[in-house]
Amino acid sequence: MKAAELRQMTTEELLNHLNNLKEELFMLRMRRRFEQLPNPLRIRVLRREIARTLTVLRERGIKL
To answer: Which CATH architecture has domain 3-59?
Structure first.
């Protein structure tokens, strides 16, 4: 998702989106410990998406 799309979301939607991304990242990291991931690039994509979301939240003055 691009930053422009994130800026159109409400703060509540952004926080929900951030929680979903963090949960998915956690699950992928756990799976990586025990088995080979079908798409290991997904971890990098999730980290970048989390960073984008946090950037938009910080632009709005939301402190986490």
So the answer is: Orthogonal Bundle (1.10)
